[in-house]
Amino acid sequence: MMSQDLAATRLQGRFPITDPLGQTITIPKSVKDDFAYFNLADATGIRSYYDREGYVVVRGLIDPDACDHAHAAFEREVKPSKRYIYRQASADPECNVFTGYGFMLNSIVNVQSVDPNHFPEFRRSGLEIITSSGLQAVLRILFGEPGKLVQSMYFEGNPATWAHQDTYYLDSERIGAMTAAWFAVENIEPGAGRYYVYPKSHLVDMVKNGGDFDIAFNHGRYKDLVKQIIHDEGFECRAPALAKGDVLFWNGKTIHGSLETPDGHFSRRSFTGHYIPESHRFLQFQSVIKPLKLKSINGMSVHHPKDLANFLNRSILAVETTFPKSFKLLKRLAIKTVTARKSPAASSKT
User: Fold this and answer.
1) Angstrom distance (rounded) from CA 153 to CA 268
2) Terminal C-alpha separation, the chain
3) Which of 78, 63, 167 lies closest to 122, judged by CA?
4) Residue 239 three-state SS
5) 210-220, pLDDT tens digit by residue?
6) What structural domains does the chain harbor?
């Protein structure tokens, strides 16, 4: 039974929830209970807050009608599908997996590369959001130049992402120059698995991806290290309230993830995009400069990895799904080889 203190907290516009360290914290129930944050007109405020805190929320950046259109396309094309789609957590092709309440749990990676023959409107409407004019304007504020998209995702259910820095997985060649954005396609309820950030954690340099902390065979050790740093530095866990059309931006070095889902009745429909400055090269696993397969979408350069508009990529997908265990092992061994090398182009300057 909920204590009187926690019940009172709910009434005061706060929602109690467990953070990644297992501690009870409270988060704002709705936008009216949260910080005002910024709108697109306040370029100075956006840049100053982002540089200081390592994240920023921009209210009303995306047209709610665009959000509704993308949601409808997902419901019509993706959700009923039995086809394999590349997924965010595993990077492997998987069929849809659903929560007990019917929400897709295994989030999609690289919306720009899903098969346009089977998911045409979802691909198009998703790209409209993650390459929108408002998004591009914020990137120019943060980068001082145009940005380009190197990765995207779509969420409906909450996979409860572990605390991490994006730079461990991907970044600009100038480590810490990448920014990411979480686009709320609906009002995100406090119990739906909100995104959280640890303000000022972008100012801490952590161990690099490789050796005893490589992603291929020591990923768990890296996850434990992140939680230890959160504890030792005394960072605050913050989970902003986002309404439909709001966007949360964070630095590639900012520790973040998604909270638990105490109420499975709620979805958290959202897109995520990872962006680097137009003039920068793309760094993967803090080890190798990755060539980009760029196409111009809405005037923005967009990387299309494993684009299933391409026949060769559809053939590779068929092999992956026919021999999944062998393919996964080969991929892990390849990543281990890559992370054993250091990229001379990488810099830790922010």
Assistant:
1) 13
2) 47
3) 78
4) coil
5) 556 556 566 77
6) 35-224+237-339 (2.60.120.620)
